[in-house]
Design a protein that fits this description.
heterodimer; A: about 190 residues; mainly alpha; Rna Polymerase Sigma Factor, Chain: A; Arc Repressor Mutant, subunit A; 2 domains; 9 helices; about 70% helix; globular; B: about 100 residues; 4 helices; about 80% helix; about 0% strand
């Protein structure tokens, strides 16, 4: 069932997907195709930054679109943007996945490669990406969610809070703590 | 490390391209929604059914009483107790 998403920033007139709702409710697969063209990359990227694994991110993306397809008949236009609800489904699916996976938190990131002029210069772009990925994975799930929504999805605090179904204050707190932890983890590059 | 530095580092991580057939996979799994029509009219059908049931239940006792009264009246006539039956009926009506 579609739960009500509190998103004061958006009514139906601002929902860029309002034109698709009736077609989706009529069961037109062409509308689903259009919805995927608009948002599949967004949802996939969100899932990837959250779970850090391509196959799992694809599975979660599939779940999000199928849930949207199956429950769209209950959608009440005007209460929120469809993409806000889809992001919420994706975030919850990622949190469920991470809880089942039981990640091990650590303060350490992979060691740097020796033998370079400066450690930072020596890292290839791929290595740096791996370190960022590892640092992100080290964050507690909800902090990772807030960082992903704010940084990688470009959402405002109000939108991020609506997606995570928490108050703006709680969201801001998650975000501040997440960035603080990331800063600490990524700063070790310079020290090493 | 300031906020800009963190942002620059976060920007380095770019997701790998998703599988080319992901969209096709999702479309293949999306079973045509056939229940939307029936779902929309299900409450109306349920309301009509409820009205019919309530109506049937409400009128059923009167029909039974009618049938019962007629049966007793016919039995009294058949058995020759017509006068007694009429007297009892009148008494009952009088007391009510």
């Amino acid at each position: 069932m579609l739960r009500k998403v509190v998103d004061n920033t958006a009514g139906q007139h601002l929902d860029p997907d309002a034109d698709l709702i009736s077609s989706l409710q009529a069961g037109e697969s062409a509308a689903l195709e259009t919805l995927m063209e608009r948002h599949l990359t967004t949802i996939y990227n969100l899932a990837y930054y959250m779970v850090g694994d391509q196959m799992s991110a694809e599975d979660i993306s599939q779940t999000v679109f199928l849930k949207t397809w199956q429950n769209i008949s209950d959608w009440k236009p005007g209460q929120a943007k469809l993409i806000t609800w889809m992001r919420r489904v994706a975030t919850n699916a990622c949190l469920d996945y991470l809880r089942k996976k039981k990640p091990v938190y650590t303060d350490k990131v992979p060691e740097l490669v020796d033998g370079a002029d400066t450690p930072f210069e020596a890292l290839s772009r791929q290595d740096q990406a791996m370190r960022v990925k590892t640092a992100l994975k080290s964050l507690p799930e909800r902090q990772r969610g807030a960082v992903t929504l704010s940084y990688y999805q470009g959402l405002s605090q109000r939108e991020g809070a609506a997606v995570m179904d928490i108050s703006e204050g709680a969201y801001e707190s998650l975000l501040v703590r997440g960035r603080k932890t990331l800063k600490r983890l990524l700063e070790t590059e310079r020290i090493a | 490390m300031d906020d800009d530095s963190i942002n620059q580092k976060l920007a380095i991580l770019v997701p790998p391209a998703m599988s080319a057939n992901l969209q096709e996979r999702i479309l293949a799994e999306a079973v045509p929604v056939s229940h939307s029509f029936s779902k929309r009219f299900m409450p109306i059908a349920a309301s009509l059914l409820a009205i019919c049931l309530i109506g049937y239940a409400a009128f059923q006792p009167f029909q039974n009483n009618e049938t019962e009264t007629e049966t007793w009246q016919e039995a009294a006539l058949d058995l020759g107790f017509e006068e007694i039956y009429t007297w009892v009926e009148n008494e009952e009506n009088f007391t009510q």
